[in-house]
Amino acid sequence: MPLTPDDLLRFLSENGIEARTYEHPPVFTVAESQALRGEIPGTNTKNLFLRDGKKTYFLVTLEENTAVDLKGLRGKIGARSGLSFASPEALYEHLGVRPGSVSLLALINDKACQVRVFVEAGLLDAERINCHPLTNDKTTSLSAQDLRHFLAATGHTVSEVTLDATETAAEAAGN
């Protein structure tokens, strides 16, 4: 059974991880988040839960305005034979959340560390990083150091991924 948002916040507290949680209307997309969340200090993220043809699962976390080309991303994260969004069922099975609630904090439910984790280069250097705490009607803000502490406490290894200007420009142009 997946942990609840209250379980997650208790885990953070018990592990000395400082976090501030803000409530807002439920959001399902970056655009909705930008319109409804209000002014929450820090860097906001978008999260892609992906799978390749070999059913390897990936969580890719980016700054919310970063465009991404899945074809270009495939080689950067070591995906084999295709890369696509994972099903809502796989999302719930691996991270214990529903679409719209994906975040690095959902890794608390990946106890076997089966999901490979990639974070946009530089994001973990932000002063504050904002993530959904297993639900899309709240945002939890943590320092980069505390987020790193959380990831280590859950046993996850994080790899950085760099998206160059050519890839993001192609995505923005719809190519």
Automatic annotation (TrEMBL):
Q: Where does this protein come from, organism-wise? A: Azorhizobium caulinodans (strain ATCC 43989 / DSM 5975 / JCM 20966 / LMG 6465 / NBRC 14845 / NCIMB 13405 / ORS 571)
**Pfam families in alphabetical order:** tRNA_edit (PF04073)
Entry superkingdom: Bacteria
- Matching Gene3D superfamilies: YbaK/aminoacyl-tRNA synthetase-associated domain
Give the stretches traversing the membrane.
none
Q: Which InterPro entries match?
A: ProX/PRXD1, YbaK/aa-tRNA-synt-asso_dom_sf, YbaK/aa-tRNA-synth-assoc-dom
Domain YbaK/aminoacyl-tRNA synthetase-associated spans what residues?
Answer: 24-150
Q: Single GO molecular-function term? A: aminoacyl-tRNA deacylase activity
Instruction: Supply the name of the protein.
Output: Uncharacterized conserved protein
The family note in this entry says: Belongs to the PRORSD1 family.
